Amino acid sequence: MWSRLVWLGLRAPLGGRQGFTSKADPQGSGRITAEVIEHLERLALVDFGSREAVARLEKAIAFADRLRAVDTDGVEPMESVLEDRCLYLRSDNVVEGNCADELLQNSHRVVEEYFVAPPGTCCPEWFNR
Amino acid sequence: MAAPMLRWGCRGRRWAFARVDGGSCHRRGAPTGSTSNRIRGESSVAQQPLHTAQKTRKGEHKWAAVVGLEIHAQISSNSKLFSGSQVRFSAPPNSLVSFFDASLPGTLPVLNRRCVEAAVMTGLALNCHINKKSLFDRKHYFYADLPAGYQITQQRLPIAVNGSLIYGVCAGKKQSQVIPKTVRIKQIQLEQDSGKSLHDNLRSQTLIDLNRAEGQLRVDANISVHHPGEPLGVRTEVKNLNSIRFLAKAIDYEIQRQINELENGGEILNETRSFHHKLGCTMSMRDKEGKQDYRFMPEPNLPPLVLYDATSLPAGADPQQVINIDQIRETLPELPSVTREKLVQQYGMLLEHSFTLLNEVGLLEFFQNVIKETRAEPKKVTSWVLNTFLGYLKQQNLAVSESPVTPSALAELLDLLDSRTISSSAAKQVFEELWKREGKTPGQIVSEKQLELMQDQGALEQLCHSVMEAHPQVVMDVKNRNPRAINKLIGLVRKATQSRADPVMIKELLEKKLSL
Fold it and tell me: In this predicted structure, which of A19-23, A90-94, B501-505 has the lowest mean pLDDT?
């Protein structure tokens, strides 16, 4: 994958890429607002507790941004590194399941045969009970 | 968890439903194209008359509503979409869950062939274009019944797109006329379902069962309003719609709410709302978190899904590992619209009759069995099946399979009627007796109750004569062209025959006697 990109040569950054990066930083200034951090924390349930963590995030984004330097004009995006593989199709037979006991052992809390979770979306505090 | 689902989006300019329970049918029009939240600004579609939701005040612009439906349908398969656990209702909690379904690390999705076939079949039945290559994506959000933290779906490139469905809307007086309409199907995609949450508010906890989510069929509605000619409005998504009736009420309410809000200078937020059926209104489900961001990304564990047809099928391929769209098309049963058309052509019935026949489980088969065994004309059979037979079923809330009257019995009854052995009213009496499930045949009932029509023309003429003699005033009225008088006379003769004469025959004889 990398060799393909390098072969295309480096050019000025192009627009119109559906990036999974840099939504946080459209201006390219490298700074991420507190609002964005809060948003990310809620989306990903990650704790950017320290200034250090935020700085690491900014560096990661800057690193990924280097992809923009590649000219991908007229190049079909690669959907998956598996794109030349065949998607295996399984026959519609019942071959697994029936292991509730085993699975429930993984859970911190159980009520009868149900997993127990905090009401609504997860909140980290609940896990420390 | 991971029960297989098909999701399809209908982008309709009008509603996709045939009947609004208890109310009149509204027709809502919108002149422009798809309201998809992802694709906006499609070019205006052809002219069609606009029907708005309510009266407009003088000088006000008309409003047009656009409604899109997101329908989740459970695929009928033995095992799940991405795992080999069973698909079944009412199993002990978490007993139909594999390691993958529980999202244990190191597990991978393995696509179920049957689900792909089902998706292709659905796409073909709904006139879609089947994408020979489709992709799987991850849609991320956190909820206790989604242990992976994401749902595998087909957001970017689904398996089928651009279909349509023709359906019937009941209109006219007494809702008896059926008007065919078309709704567009934006896309059909395969996706996982979540598990089931049981909320225990007392103990502030949620119990999770990863077997499968509730409901084999779920619908969410997307609604927006705008002025014709202007861009589409902001849409809201309405959830918690548990029946067609509620769906209709919720859409009605939301359209009105949006119009009111906008006319009062407010704005519509792109949000999710829940329908509260007791209050008959929708309420915002939004919390302070703002708009949901699903962070879609390609599913890295699944290559693209490639489908073939007769021309592109690779030689020597393992038949288990390839899906041939043309082959699947051949296995499609006759679609309802084709069946309806055939019924109209073959039996001369009205379109609305064909809808009724197909809308009741087992009714078409019942009808066809009666047709096979009786000499009576199809129109007579249609009338008896749709009016008398169906009427009795509905009154007692029975399914066709629970009917005390078999197709053979009805066929025999109709033969007796056709051969003028019994009159129409006698036939109704026999039918009522048959419904009592006493094991008697129509023939037996007719004998027992002496319902046979008088065959002796001479005796009937004699009776007509004596009745006419006994009621000179009525005869005078008939001669004076009093329209009700002839019926009175017929009634008198019928009474004299103890209802064993065909009223049609009586009328003929009387008219002959009176030289009318």
Answer: A19-23
CATH numbers and ranges of domains, chain B: 64-287 (no CATH), 336-449 (no CATH), 457-514 (1.10.10.410)
Of A88, A111, A115, the CB nearest to B110: A88
Per this entry, what is the length of chain B? 516
Question: Among A3, A2, A5, which residue's Cα sits nearest to residue A72?
Answer: A5
Tokens representing residue A85 in the block:
């593989």
List chain A residues with CB under 8 Å of B95. Answer: 97-98, 100, 113
**Contact of B366 with B407, CB cutoff 8 Å:** yes
Interatomic CA distance for residues B214 and B221, integer angstroms = 18
Q: Tell me what the mean pLDDT of segment B380-406 comes to.
A: 94
Inter-chain CB proximity A83 and B303 less than 8 Å: yes
The first and second tokens of residue B195, run together, are 């598990």
In whole angstroms, what is the distance from residue B349 CA to residue B411 CA? 18
**pLDDT interval class at B48 (50, 70, 90):** very low
Q: What is the DSSP letter of B201?
A: T
pLDDT in tens, B101-158: 999 999 999 999 999 999 999 999 999 999 999 999 999 988 889 999 999 999 999 9
- Grouping H, G, I as helix, E, B as strand and the rest as coil, residue B123 is helix
Residues β-bridged to residue B284:
B273
Q: Which residue has the higher pLDDT, B516 or B475?
A: B475
Q: Which of residues 326-345 of B touch A (CB under 8 A)?
A: none
CA distances from B479 to B390, B463, B465 (A): 42, 19, 15
Q: Which residues of chain B have a CB within 8 Å of the CB of A40?
A: none
Test B135 with A80 for CB contact under 8 angstroms. Answer: yes
Residue B262 near residue B115, CB atoms below 8 Å? no
pLDDT at A47: 87
Query: By the CB < 8 Å criterion, does B110 face chain A?
Result: yes
Contacts of B242 (CB under 8 A, 6+ apart): B277
Q: In which band, very low, low, confident or very high, does the pLDDT at B287 lie, cut at 50, 70 and 90?
A: low
CB B108 within 8 A of CB A108: no
Q: Please check the confidence at residue A128 and state whether its pLDDT lies above 60.
A: no
- Residue window 39-58, chain A: list those with CB within 8 Å of chain B: 39, 42-43, 45
Mean pLDDT of all residues in chain B?
85
**Verdict on whether the full-model pTM lies above 0.80:** no
Give the residue-averaged pLDDT of A89-99: 96
Closest partner CB to B98 (pick from A42, A97, A118)? A97
All structural domains of chain A with their residue ranges: 30-71
